[in-house]
Write a structure and sequence with these properties.
The structure is a single chain. The protein has three helices and seven strands; from the N terminus they run ββββααβαββ. By secondary structure, the chain is of the alpha+beta class. It has a seven-stranded mixed beta sheet with strand order 1-2-3-4-5-7-6, sandwiched between helices. β2 and β3 form a beta hairpin. The longest helix is centred in the middle third of the chain and has 20 residues. It is globular. The termini are far apart. The relative contact order is 0.15.
């Protein structure tokens, strides 16, 4: 999987059936902890011209259901390897998944089972967090 640098992070996208699945790993550097936090954004859209408004209004469609989630899981697994190999390996890295509601959170939690994500509150939101700590 080829991750594309978009300035604020990296993304990958795939066309599955009529939908485009876009997974963004949005980077935030936390200087106090010398940590890179990568927020996972999953975005599914059918028509590009509506994609921006769908993202702004937090609307998405999951008619592809499991196919979208399997692609996102594959992207997360490969992104973990990507940050270990790239120049980010000198930082503490966290991958953070948050959801808009409890139902989605439960689905995401089942999806990343076995990938060493833990459930914590982060910035006031229930989150799934994968941690790679260099300073331990």
């Amino acid at each position: 999987m080829d991750f594309i640098n978009c300035g604020s992070g990296y993304y990958v996208k795939e066309k599955i059936n009529k939908y485009t699945i876009f997974v963004l790993f949005q980077k935030e550097y936390i200087k106090k902890h010398e940590r890179l936090e990568w927020y996972v954004v999953l975005w599914v859209y059918r028509k590009r011209k509506k994609a921006d408004s769908m993202m702004f209004n937090k609307e998405t469609t999951f008619e592809n259901g499991i196919l979208n989630l399997l692609f996102a899981k594959k992207a997360i697994i490969e992104f973990i390897e990507f940050i270990k190999k790239e120049r980010f390996s000198r930082y503490n890295n966290w991958i953070i998944i948050q959801a808009t509601d409890e139902r989605r959170f439960s689905v995401y939690k089942r999806g990343v089972k076995g990938l060493n994500f833990i459930t914590e509150f982060h910035n006031g939101a229930k989150s799934l967090i994968w941690k790679e700590e260099k300073n331990e």
